[in-house]
Amino acid sequence: MVSMHVRPPEIEDHVMPGHWEDDFIKGAGNKSSVGVLVERSSRLVLLARMQDATAESALRGFTARLNSIPAPVRKGLTYDQGRELTRHAELTAKTGVRVCFCDPHSPWQRGSCENTNGLLRQSLPKGTDLSVYTQEELDAIAHSLNTRPRQPLGWRTPLRVFAQTLASAHQPPATVQ
After folding, report:
1. Which strands make up the sheet holding 45-50, listed edge to edge?
2. What is d(CA 93, CA 87) in angstroms, rounded to the nearest whole number?
3. So what's the pLDDT on residue 81?
4. What is the pLDDT of the chain when averaged over all its residues?
5. What is the DSSP string of 36-79?
6. What gap in Å lies between CA 77 and CA 88, rounded to an integer?
7. Cβ(58)–Cβ(94) below 8 Å
8. Which of 129, 116, 149 lies closest to 40, judged by CA?
9. pLDDT digits (tens, 9 = 90+) for 65-108
10. CA distances from 124 to 2, 54, 85, 102, 129 (A)
11. What are the backbone dihedrals phi and psi of residue 13, each rounded to the nearest 5 degrees, phi first?
C-alpha cells in the first residue's frame, strides 16, 4: 500500500486534475452498496452500481467507471483502508490509476468524497436497499450533483469545470517563438 503522503503537494491544493477519491456508501444492513468516485479539482461525481461490498465488486465497478473517462484525467486515486480495495494492484493494472491510501480512521483525508457522500444521502438515504438502483438511475443522481453550482468552483458546475479540464488536456502545447 502506498501512503497518500507521497502524493505531489499540488494534489492537496485541488489544482492538479485527474486525481480521484473513492468510497463506498452502504445500504440497509450493509448488504448493498454504491461506489463513489469524486475528481478532486472539478468535484465531478461518478457512481458505480455494486453487487455487494466485496473487493471483486469494487474492482469490477471502479474499473468500469474509471475506464469510461479519458486517460489524461485518470491519474491517481485515494482510498481509505477498507477491505473493498484489497485488489488495488489489479485496479492499477486495468486502469493505469495509481492508488494511494489514507491513514487509518482518517476520513477527512478524503474530504471531497466525504462531502459528496453527505450530498448523496439526500437521494440515497441511510437504511435503504441500494441494490434496487440501476446504473442509469445512479448516473442520473450523479448528473444532478454534477450540474449543481459549487462555491469552491466559483459557482461553476463540476461538469463545466471537468469539460474545461478535458478541453485543455487535448490542446497541443504552446510553442515558444
Report:
1. 45-50, 33-39, 19-26, 76-79, 98-101
2. 10
3. 72
4. 86
5. EEEETTT--EEEEEESSSSHHHHHHHHHHHHTTS-GGG--EEEE
6. 10
7. no
8. 116
9. 999 999 989 998 888 877 887 889 999 999 999 888 877 777 66
10. 31, 20, 22, 25, 9
11. -85, 0
